[in-house]
Amino acid sequence: MRRTIMAIVGLTAATWVTWVHADVTVLAVRLGAKDVVALAKFYDAAFGLKQIDHVGQPPTEIIMRYGATVAAAKAGSSPEFLVAHRDPGAANDPIMHAVFRVSDIAAAVLAAKTAGATIKSDVASITIGGMSLKSATLVDPDGNVLEIMELPKGVTHLRHP
């Protein structure tokens, strides 16, 4: 009887833990901006993000998503990119940053530089989880750090051992 009760409790706990972690995905990335409208234009020009909504008038936050058009971005399901007002004097934390997966790192770096980014570390070959990839680090016009990664053809995410 005791074994049966312990087995039921163990299975219930395992089921609960699995349920708690089900359907977890990235919802959004939030970066600070001195001028949210100007920084949103940068992310549109550099990475093709489209404005799908905003908070406040004038905007204190602009919500963006990937899509060929605004309508496609609104209908899409990619994680949201939130460009939120950062008060003057607030510290830029270099640890918090956005990471973009791109198919052509040279083109992505060029587009970001053309749109106003600066290079923090140029394109380099690195290894993560036993996988070779290319990475570059940029800084957007408001000082947010951006990491750009080109994964091997056919790979959609980083491998973690």
Any idea of the CATH class?
Answer: Alpha Beta
Q: What summary fits the major beta sheet?
A: 4 strands, mixed
Number of helices in the DSSP assignment = 4
User: What is the CATH topology classification name?
Assistant: 2,3-Dihydroxybiphenyl 1,2-Dioxygenase, domain 1
CATH homologous superfamily title: 2,3-Dihydroxybiphenyl 1,2-Dioxygenase, domain 1
Number of domains: 1
For the secondary structure, the number of strands is 8
Class by alpha and beta content: alpha/beta
**Strand neighbour order, sheet with most strands:** 1-4-3-2
List the helices and strands in order.
HEHEEHEEHEEE
Rg, alpha carbons: 20 Å
Share of β-strand residues: 35-45%
Quote the average pLDDT. 80
Q: Which percent range fits the helix content? A: 25-40%
Shape: globular
Distance between the termini: 40 Å
Descriptors:
alpha/beta; four-stranded mixed beta sheet; 2,3-Dihydroxybiphenyl 1,2-Dioxygenase, domain 1
3D architecture notes:
- The chain has helices at 2-20, 36-47, 70-75, 105-115; strands at residues 28-33, 49-55, 61-66, 80-85, 97-102, 118-128, 131-139, 145-150.
- With 161 residues, the protein is of the alpha/beta class.
- The chain has one domain: 2,3-Dihydroxybiphenyl 1,2-Dioxygenase, domain 1 (Roll).
- The strands form two sheets. The chain has a four-stranded mixed β-sheet with strand order 1-4-3-2. The protein has a four-stranded mixed β-sheet with strand order 5-8-7-6, covered by helices on one side.
Write the layout of secondary structure elements.
Layout: H1 2-20, E1 28-33, H2 36-47, E2 49-55, E3 61-66, H3 70-75, E4 80-85, E5 97-102, H4 105-115, E6 118-128, E7 131-139, E8 145-150
Parallel strand pairs: 1-4, 5-8
Antiparallel strand pairs: 2-3, 3-4, 6-7, 7-8
Helix pairs in contact: 2-4
